[in-house]
Every structure is written in C-alpha cells, then in structure tokens.
Amino acid sequence: xxxxxxxxxxxxxxxxxxxxxxxxxxxxxxxxxxxxxxxxxxxxxxxxxxxxxxxxxxxxxxxxxxxxxxxxxxxxxxxxxxxxxxxxxxxxxxxxxxxxxxxxxxxxxxxxxxxxxxxxxxxxxxxxxxxxxxxxxxxxxxxxxxxxxxxxxxxxxxxxxxxxxxxxxxxxxxxxxxxxxxxxxxxxxxxxxxxxxxxxxxxxxxxxxxxxxxxxxxxxxxxxxxxxxxxxxxxxxxxxxxxxxxxxxxxxxxxxxxxxxxxxxxx
Length: 267
Ligand code: ADP
Ligand code: MG
What we know:
This protein is an alpha/beta fold. The protein has a domain at 97-161. Helices cover 34% and strands 23% of the residues. The strands form 3 sheets. It has a 6-stranded mixed sheet, sandwiched between helices. A 3-stranded antiparallel sheet has the order 4-3-6, with helices on one face. A hairpin with a 5-residue loop joins strand 1 (7-8) and strand 2 (14-15).
C-alpha cells in the first residue's frame, strides 16, 4: 500500500481505510535498553483471524499492547481503523473483580461508558449466554473454574461489540480439553460476529487450528520471521484437527518457527 494512504491523526496515530490494523516500521525500545520489537511492518485485513506465534520473549505482548494503544512505539506508526474505541483486549489471566458477580463483571465496560443499568444488564446477560454461561450470571469468580472465568473474560471483551479483538495467550493456562472447547467456541463467536481477531500464542497447533494467517516472530530483537496462510474453510472442528491438511500446516509452521529460532529447540 502506498505510504500516502496513512494519514497522521492529531494524537500521532494514523488511520487507514483499508486495513483493520496497520503497522509501519514499528519498533519498541524500553528504557532499560531492551529492544522488544524491531521494525515491524504488518497489515491485518478486516474480519481476519491472525495468530502471532513465537517463543517467549519475542515481543508478542509488546506488539499487541501497542496495537491496543496501551503502549506507544518508540518509532514507526500504528493505525487501527476506527480508533481505540472499537478495540477489546483479553489477557492471559481473566482479571475479573472477585467482589463482582459474573454479570456485573461483564457489565463493567458498559457502565464505564455510561450505559443505563437495565440495558447493560440485558447485554451482559446476552454476552454470558453467547459464551455458554447462561445461568451463571450471579456466580462469583471464586465459584467458577479456570475455563469459565476465561469465558466471563471473553464475554466482557465482546459485550462492547468490538471491531478488533486482541487476545494475549488467553488459553495458555487451561487444560487441553478446556482449551479445545474454548477454541471451538471462539471460532463460533468469530464466525457470528466477524470481528477482526488477533491471537497471541506459543502453540503451533492452536495457531493453525484457529487462524487464517500465522505471523511467526523471532526474538532478540522481536521481529516477523515468516507469514503463512492457513487457507482452510470454516467451520473447523475435530475433522480438521485430525486431518492430514492440518498436520501439514503444523509441520510447515513448526519448520518456520524453528528457522526463526535459529535451530534452537523450542518448548
Ligand atoms: P512475549 O510476549 O513474546 O513473551 P514480551 O513482549 O513480553 O514477549 O517481551 C519482549 C521483550 O521485551 C522481552 O525481552 C522482555 O523481557 C522485554 N520487556 C517486556 N516488557 C518490558 C518492560 N516493561 N521493560 C523492559 N523490558 C520489557
Ligand atoms: Mg507475552
């Protein structure tokens, strides 16, 4: 895309009509001298499902936080179409407020934007139902399993109807069976709502199962090492997970990851 399409906005951000998120020459150097991200160019299409895959420390979280506007690049430009308003973030920890019920946790972003209580309640209940938690509105986080807490966290992210959903290793702490269920439910939500999804993971298998595109990152400094398409139809289910095509994509992406890690064995 020609440079001219990126229009600087007053706050230093840039806006582009064609991509959901656009990064140009983005670097992040922390005050202690660590270069976490170096010269990243990346354009993510509206409605896409993209995974950022790489070993721990390669700058995935730093990159995602900059896309969310939670941190500023040291150099380069980032544009999220529509601005910060339509962005939701899901962290690895569900970060629920222990003194609020599931419903009141999910209502929080709506109440913070001054939506009337009754409407916020109705929308939060709907979001909880969407993640399979109808009937758990009045449960407190301590009474919920890890998977259910993550579902509440996803409901809280989706209740604002974001255009862009950024997820930072949201399922890394869950057991495999729960993770598979949440992978399926996330894809169902994505197909229904068609937000743009950017999903950080260090699992090759998870990245291939979920995404249409896998961006492989390398460390020291964090950068993009490979960018691969997983051009397979949705809905994806157990049939895809056990198919030869899935295995072939996993092999290809594992190979790219090993290359990115310079032959280091990866965990
Ligand atoms: P990942 O999410 O891929 O594990 P991070 O983005 O968390 O990687 O970190 C990338 C690099 O930047 C690491 O070397 C990490 O130690 C460093 N880093 C992250 N946050 C900070 C910070 N606030 N200050 C200094 N260094 C940081
Ligand atoms: Mg991280």
